[in-house]
Amino acid sequence: MHFAEVEDLSLTPNQTREFAIYINEVKIADFSPRYLQTDTFFLKPESQTNIKFLLVRTPTSTLPPLINALEIYVGNTYAQSFTSQEDDDAVTSVKMSYKVKRNWQGDPCLPNSYIWEGLNCSYASLAPPRITLLNLSSSGLTGQISPSFSNLTMIEQLDLSNNELTGDIPESLSGLKFLRVLNLEKNKLTGSVPSDLLKRSNSGSLLLKVGDNPGLCTEVSCGKSNKKTLVTALGASLAALFILLLLSGVFWKIKKRSNKPDSAVEEDTENEARNHPKSDSDTLLFTFSDIVKMTNNFGRVLGKGGFGTVYHGYYNNLQVAVKLLSATSAQRFKEFRSEVEVLVRVHHVNLTALIGYFQESDQMGLVYEFMANGNMADHLSGKYDHTLSWTQRLQISLDAAQGLEYLHTGCKPAIVHRDVKTSNILLNEKNRAKLADFGLSRSFQTESRSHVSTLVAGTPGYLDPLCFKTNELNEKSDIYSFGVVLLEMITGNAVISDSETKRVHVSDWVISILKSTNDVSNVVDSKMGGDFDANSVWKIVELALASVSQNVAERPNMQQIVRGLKECLQREESNKNHQ
C-alpha cells in the first residue's frame, strides 16, 4: 500500500488525517500520511484465499482515509515444464564460470516475459523449453571457452564475440548439430578452428565468424601431421576419380535424355520436381551487409506493422521484399524462427516464397519474393485508384483459400496460420494472391488430437472469440478468420467500425442488414457498382457467415470453402462470356 497526503493540511490547522490499517480484521498500524511524500506498507496476509483490507478513520481524525496505490501480488502456476535440466545446468555453469553480470535469476526460459537477457528459447506444448540462442557478446568474458556451451544441445545461435576469450576452440562445439550461427570474432583465441566447423561453414550450413583473432588459424591444413603430402595426394586422386565418375554419369544421363522425345523429358522433369520438392538449402542465409546493399541502405519502405518495417530491394536483379523485425517486438525471435521453419518446408503457389533470412547480433529479418500490388486490405480501403471487381475479389479469395487449404491438409503435420487477415493477403502485378506472414503459425497433429493448447494470438476482429474462452486452437480458428476476410471482401467495410454508441463487427453489421432488408445488394461494396451476380454474392455471404458461426461444428472446412469460391467464380466468368 502506498500513501501520500495530497492536501497541505498546514494551511488549515484544525484538519487532520489519521486512520488505522486492518488486514483480515487484524490492526496493522495507526497512520497519518505525509504531505507529498510516499510511505509504503508491505503486508503479508496469512490467508491466500480471502483477504480483506480496511482503512478506518481514528476518532481524532477530521478527514477520511485515503490510499494512493495498492499493489497485489499473486503467485502464478505454469502448466508448462521448467527449462530443460540439461540446458539449465549448462547456462548456470556458464554464469558461474564467467561471473556473468546480468540479471540472470530464476528459471532461464520461464516466464517467457522474463527470459534471461541474451537468451531465446523454444516452447513446445508438452516438452520443457530449450535454449536456442545465447548472446554473450561484449560481456567481459575471460579465459577459455567453457565446455558447458557444448551441453546446450539444441542451441542454434551462439555469440561470444568482442570478449577476452583465450585458448583453443573446443572440438566439442562441432557436436552441436543444430548450430547455425557461431560468432567468435574479436577475441584472443589461438590454435586452429576444428575441421568439422570449417566443413560446415564451407557447405553453408553454419555461419562461422572468427575474424580478429590474430593467433587463430582458419585453414583446414592447420595442425596436420607429416603425412600431409600423402593425404593430399590421396585426396587429389579420389577427387579426380570422383570428377571422372561424375562426368561419366552426366554424359550418360544427357545421352539417355537425348534419346527420349520432348514429352518424356518434360515428364521426367515434372516427376523430379514432384518427388524432390524445394529443399531447405534453397533458402539463403544473408549477412546484414548483404541486406543493406540489397535495399540500397533501406531506401524504400513498402509497409510497417507491429513486426517491424518492410523494404523494397533487389537480389540478382530480382525484386524482393525485406522484412526487418522490430527490436521492440517482444516475441520477434519466436515469430522469426516460426516463419523460417514454416517457409523452408512448405511450398505452394499461393504462399509467399522465402528467398532467405538474416540474423546478426540483434538484427534479424526475412527476404521474400516481391508482390507488386500490395495487400488486399489496402485495395479494399480505397488506397489505390483502381477498385477490385467482384470477379477479381473472388479470384483473390480463392487464391488465399487454396494456400490455407494446403496448410491444413497438404502439410504433415498440418499447420494453423493463426493470423489470417486481408493485410496478410498479398497481390502480384496480375492481382493473383498469396498468403503471407507465418510468424504465429503452429503445427497441428490432426490425427492425434482435436486441438492444441496455446496462448491467444492474432489480430482483434479476426481472432476466433472461442479462443479466448478455451485457449484451444485448431484449423476451425483459421476458418473463422477467413470468414471475416470474405465479409470484408464483400462489403468493403473495416473488420470493426465505430458507430455513435458502440463498435460493430462486420459480421454483426451484415447480419443486421440482411435481417431487416433480406437484400444482399445492401451489403455489397458500393465501389463495385452493380457488376456482380446476386446469386454468387448470396453463396459467399452464406459461406462467410457459416465460417464465423459461434457453433464450431457449423463451420465449413477449407476444402468446402475452396469449392464454393470456385463455383461462384465459374458462374461469374460464364455470365461474362455470354454477355
Defining traits:
28 strands, single chain, Phosphorylase Kinase, domain 1, 20% strand, six-stranded mixed sheet, 4 domains, 13 helices, alpha/beta, Leucine-rich repeat, LRR (right-handed beta-alpha superhelix), five-stranded mixed sheet
Report on this model:
One of its GO terms (molecular function) is ATP binding. Its EC number is 2.7.11.1. The protein starts with a strand and ends with a helix. The protein is α/β, with parallel strands linked by helices and about 575 residues long. A six-stranded mixed β-sheet has the order 15-19-20-18-17-16, sandwiched between helices. It has a five-stranded mixed β-sheet with strand order 6-7-9-11-13, with helices on one face.
Distance between the termini: 77 Å
How many runs of DSSP E, i.e. beta strands? 28
**Strand percentage, roughly?**
15-25%
Proportion of residues in helical segments: 25-40%
Q: Compute the gyration radius: what is it?
A: 31 Å
* Poorly predicted spans: 224-281, 447-456
**CATH class annotation of the largest domain:** Mainly Alpha
What is the CATH third-level topology name of the largest domain?
A: Transferase(Phosphotransferase), domain 1
Strand order of the largest sheet: 15-19-20-18-17-16
CATH H level, superfamily name of the largest domain: Transferase(Phosphotransferase) domain 1
CATH architecture of the largest domain: Orthogonal Bundle
Largest sheet: 6 strands, mixed
What number of structural domains do the residues give?
A: 4
Helix-strand category: alpha/beta
Count of helical regions: 13
Mean pLDDT rating: 81
Coarse shape: flat
